[in-house]
Amino acid sequence: MAYTVVGKSVTRVDAVAKVTGKAKYTDDFSERDMLVGKILHSPYAHAIVKSIDVSKAKALPGVEAVLTYKDLPEIRYATAMPGVIEAIATDEVDVAELKYGTAGHPFSLDESHRDKEDRYILTQKARFVGDNIAAVVATDALIASKALKLIEVEYEVLEALTSTDAALKEGAPLIHDDCEGNILASNGYAIGNIEEALKESDHVIEGEYETSIVQHCHMENQVSHAYVDSDRRIVIMTSTQIPHIVRRIVAQSLGISWGRVRVIKPYVGGGFGNKQDVCIEPLNVAMSLAVGGRPVKLELSREEAMIDTRTRHAFKFKIKTGINNDGKINGIHITAVSNTGAYASHGHSIASSGGGKFRYLYPTKALKFEPITVYTNLPVAGAMRGYGTPQIFFAFESHMEDIAKKLKMDPIEIRKKNLVEVGHVDLLSKNKIMSCSIRECIDKGRELIKWDAKKALYKDQSGDKRRGVGMACFSYASGTYPVALELAGARIVMNQDGSVQLQLGATEIGQGSDTVFAQMVAEVLGIPMYMVHVISTQDTDITPFDTGSYASRQTYVSGMAVEKAALEVKEKVLAFANRMTDIPAHLLDIKDQFVVFKDSGEQVIALEVVAMQSYYDRVNAQPITSDVSNNARINAIPYGVTFAEVEVDIKTGKIKILEIFNVHDSGKIVNPLLAEGQVHGGVSMGIGYALSEQLLFDEKTGKPLNNNLLDYKLPTIMDTPDIGAAFVEKEDPTGPFGVKSLGEPPIVSPAPAIRNAVYDATDVAFNRIPMNPQRVFEKFKETGLI
Amino acid sequence: MAYTVVGKSVTRVDAVAKVTGKAKYTDDFSERDMLVGKILHSPYAHAIVKSIDVSKAKALPGVEAVLTYKDLPEIRYATAMPGVIEAIATDEVDVAELKYGTAGHPFSLDESHRDKEDRYILTQKARFVGDNIAAVVATDALIASKALKLIEVEYEVLEALTSTDAALKEGAPLIHDDCEGNILASNGYAIGNIEEALKESDHVIEGEYETSIVQHCHMENQVSHAYVDSDRRIVIMTSTQIPHIVRRIVAQSLGISWGRVRVIKPYVGGGFGNKQDVCIEPLNVAMSLAVGGRPVKLELSREEAMIDTRTRHAFKFKIKTGINNDGKINGIHITAVSNTGAYASHGHSIASSGGGKFRYLYPTKALKFEPITVYTNLPVAGAMRGYGTPQIFFAFESHMEDIAKKLKMDPIEIRKKNLVEVGHVDLLSKNKIMSCSIRECIDKGRELIKWDAKKALYKDQSGDKRRGVGMACFSYASGTYPVALELAGARIVMNQDGSVQLQLGATEIGQGSDTVFAQMVAEVLGIPMYMVHVISTQDTDITPFDTGSYASRQTYVSGMAVEKAALEVKEKVLAFANRMTDIPAHLLDIKDQFVVFKDSGEQVIALEVVAMQSYYDRVNAQPITSDVSNNARINAIPYGVTFAEVEVDIKTGKIKILEIFNVHDSGKIVNPLLAEGQVHGGVSMGIGYALSEQLLFDEKTGKPLNNNLLDYKLPTIMDTPDIGAAFVEKEDPTGPFGVKSLGEPPIVSPAPAIRNAVYDATDVAFNRIPMNPQRVFEKFKETGLI
């Protein structure tokens, strides 16, 4: 379809606010006499607090409260309203022992679909270096820091299980008493009969692949402040992707009614999934409650944020693929060990999600996925851009390359042979592929990088610097359907001049969703962008309900709600115009701020005149608003491919990316410039994932070794090549304006494409990332290349 | 009907916020680097600026801008968006010469129903002492004040017309060029044939009555701040009763689209109608625009607020009443001269409104009302509690007393003979009296004050201290229908625990409307008050549209919207419950947080369970909200009476109120304690109106003589007797829960009741208020009493 605003690279609605510094983030807000909270983290990866003496800390002038796990029951009982606490009691929940889950999932009425509740606000048992043992509230940060040092803790140190191997070892101590063998969960799935499929195949090819722990490194660290308002409700302002879920989890952590919590989200400086978790808010609220509800601010330092929020799960995969001589895959058997760290958080969902989204790329008659998610004494892994898919696609797209090499097939051809077709229905999710341009994406990428010429050119290299090209594909999803609820809300209010305000449940966290939604509204209502005013702040008291920003669901899922709201407004405008003109509404449309005849485009009446009438008609006045909720029960599968060209310095192990292109099938692109920005960000993150990033820990003690931005090797702009972004735009019939998701996809395939390019250049297959110089160098030595 | 929450004296929802000081008023908010604005007021009542030199002021370090009328065109052209300014130009409006009206009326599509546009943001012609000549924006208040003194203005001083008599004199200079004879308007009405009615009457009794200029004296002076946000929109935070109207008027004053203005109203410290006017916001915005949109605060001092906002119109009435021997009135002829001061503001509406609301008390077959509203060189009169009715009822209820005396009839009996009956339809407004308990109110008041005993006791007094009793009745209205639009909006969002947020267009300004609305919602939804969270701040971007708080319209008109919103939520809850239980929704009700069988009250399912389902049902999830607008086209007429007992000190002229009772027919009383508070406030204001308050001006120059709280004699708590409040509660069939208005009514009848009591005590009829000791003493001398 031809659109006026959708598909245009309009300026971000928050551009001016952000470049002028006027956009207000959590840290820009303050409450009068706000206190400061600080956390005492465990120095041990696995230890029991035998005794804790806070008397010296409490005695320090300026210290308002010191909290340990012992104080929580008191806080909870004092917080619960009469009636509420009894309700909890009858539900046989011991408020004193209340545990909660932190994962930013929508919640489920089905108890078996809820997240594991294994977290305390403050713990008596440290499960990783950094675990929250005690907290201080003081008049300023310096006093709070001093007070932390005055807390005397005696620990009983236990064996630190710093790897999944150690945790799975028979007789290993249990990190959580109720988890046998330290296994959080192990449910997977099977399609067809994998044993038979492998047996029937001409070849069975095996491979092992491993990814490392990385961290989101969003610009803005976790920060929040909390207080009790004069209505006895808890108010939290926080840098989050999921205000409505923060509300629920804070309430659950205290055992109070959810309606008694109010969460406000100002501008957010990035999240990448780490703010799809409720890391600091329950403790922040407990801090406030400990000082009678006075406002307390809790801000993590970078060092804290890197270990005490969430990380990306490290995975170990074993893959066995049955394939015929013609390159057609019969069956795939994957086992995966996922390291979730000390607490569940998103836990096994990550493995499940990777295993689920992976299925949409190469459907096979047999597929067995056997993941286990294992507790270790390392920082907690959670949601991070891609949510399990960068791991599984690193493994499988490396594996595909290995198969191609083994079978001496063209890596593109073997993929094309196995790629999904439109109309395919996934057996488990029942999601149907309604659009798929992965083949066109591959062709486009192949051309952009001059694949065939370079393939020919880079054959049989020697010397210190060798070049190669590689590619890797991925499939993803648009939101979580049918795994979780996909509820989104939008509210539109039309002003007297025909301009509108747009309120969203979905959160702008830097990705540009506010702009994309405004474009959708402008498109439907026939008004220019400057007439759409997006309320970017979410406030659970008034913002339409939306589960939040994650799972690349905004443009697709929340977009449906936005389109629905805009269509409802349009319908009301046309109904008013009909009352004013007697022209049947179905003959009318809105264009350039005028109600027009749909067919001829002839102007009937100015939108402003209709809007004025909606406010001031003495009989029919009814200001035009819409307040909609949309429960999406559909999913659209986006696809894409990375093509990378690398130059490997054999002597130093340094890998340089010469060219890299991501080509995406994300349906219609609402804002090409923003879309390109998403791709740039995702690919850059993928480059770090492939080549340099890894959170390191002392193997014996579990102590973090590089939880800072100096030692953690996030690629800088100097390390990043020009990134090419291209799109094959075919409208998906299910998405609003034909969109499919694009938020997370760009991170999924760069790592395997780079790995495959390195393989192409050097004939050395790296099955573990990051391929940092040290590891590359060692591997080259091992393989005899140097 | 029996209610659970409605009719109970529940605690104000803002009680804790206000007594703890946590409630935030406009002055409690700040923007970074906020500048301060100050106004240069004219020292002359009538003068033309011949020249103005701001160079010295501009040169003062810390001064960011100095504005005069010359700067306004530039500001306006710079502000208008491309497209908008052209639209204005084609409408043949000269932006440079743009005038606007300030009255807080809803706006009308009918041009002839709009307010007179006679105001400039800054003027070249001063029309009262205090008129806005120039403005300064500086980094702090001290510098701004200094800069004001550096502005050099040369005036051509014109004759100051400080009374309506002077303004109406032939040949008087014109205050506004386009107003012949300085008359703003003179339209009145006539019912029947007054000449015939008077001719047919046994007696024709005449009287003249006069009221003075008084001021609202709300605790919080006018204060606002304004800036341009990064979306190029104007944001104003202001202490107002009418945020949506401020939006319109600011836009009109600048000639820009209304949607480009956003108005936020925090807690407000009283308004009494003075904040139903847009006094400072356009200038505040101009100040910000003069400094490139940076935030500027404008706060009036008490001295400024008392002359440069609004006052109550002074009136002079001549009344001629034709009455028969049996006490039945045949016809009334009223002429009224209303002094609107230098600008129109609410202007003639005040006279019209008084003449309109007055009609509902004593319907007669002939009634002629001839008001004229006259410009003078005094501060601008506008809306003030009662809106013209305290004036006309002072006149007419004094007049009724005079008639009773003349005819030697009992003052109560003569009134009862003429009082309206249920079923009466007003010939002009077509409003039908659906409930009326004025007779019961009179009986109750008579009993409370022990009227008959005192009447007997106080006959034939002599001596220095004489006592008397008096009474006076009134009628009012609930909102403005059919004069103006009565649109109100409410939005309710139900949380997962069944608690709700309530968003209102109607503004809490201290009167307690938030509490009353919360009670209505709690009543309909069967939940306790603590589960209703009222969003007390209005923000035109997101708040449902409501014209504002004035005309005693909240409980009745906005209450309709609130009830409608709550009923819609209830309907949705029961529909969900039906889906969950298959019990027909029409058999169900909500009570004590449970969905119950309507008839038996038997519990079916907890509200919380339904609410949870509304959020998390995988198929039917649809969070329960309502966002309604209600266009009330009906009115309910409240009635009431004041009974007062006074002791007059003949030698000093001091009048002491011994007892005073207001008895109200306001339909169902939602919150008796709040209602009593309204009555206490209104009666106290009425006592000041009767006995002590008057803004004084030098007759020759028009200079204010007592525009401060020391010299302006507002009654203190020491001057105020115990005030008795009583209600005759009969539910009006049109109001939500049977309510009628109560906000303004208590101010209407105290003054004439006190006047009549003084008459009873002294046999001296005061036909002019205030009856302050000086005036009483003079009158006693004049009548030979001393």
Description of the molecule:
The first copy, chain A, contains 21 helices and 30 strands. With 786 residues, chain A is α+β, with helices and mostly antiparallel strands. Among the domains of chain A are: 15-23 and 487-631, Aldehyde oxidase/xanthine dehydrogenase, molybdopterin binding domain (Aldehyde Oxidoreductase, domain 4, 2-Layer Sandwich), CATH 3.30.365.10; 411-480 and 636-783, Aldehyde oxidase/xanthine dehydrogenase, molybdopterin binding domain (Aldehyde Oxidoreductase, domain 4, 2-Layer Sandwich). The longest helix of chain A has 28 residues, at 554-581.
What sort of overall outline of chain A do the alpha carbons produce when their principal axes are compared? globular
Read across the widest sheet of chain A, the strand sequence of neighbours is 3-5-1-13-10-11-12-23
CATH hierarchy, class of the domain at 411-480 and 636-783 in chain A: Alpha Beta
Cα separation of the termini of chain A: 57 Å
Largest interface comes to: A-B, 59 and 59 residues
If you average the pLDDT of chain A, what whole number results? Answer: 96
- Number of DSSP strands of chain A? 30
Instruction: Please estimate the helix content of chain A.
Output: 25-40%
Unreliable residue runs of chain A = none
Radius of gyration of chain A: 27 Å
Q: What is the level-2 CATH architecture name of the domain at 411-480 and 636-783 in chain A? A: 2-Layer Sandwich
Question: What is the quaternary state of this protein?
Answer: homodimer
**Structural classification of chain A:** alpha+beta
Number of helices in the DSSP assignment of chain A = 21
Major beta sheet summary of chain A: 8 strands, mixed
CATH H level, superfamily name of the domain at 411-480 and 636-783 in chain A: Aldehyde oxidase/xanthine dehydrogenase, molybdopterin binding domain
Question: β content of chain A, as a range?
Answer: 15-25%
The CATH topology of the domain at 411-480 and 636-783 in chain A is what? Aldehyde Oxidoreductase, domain 4
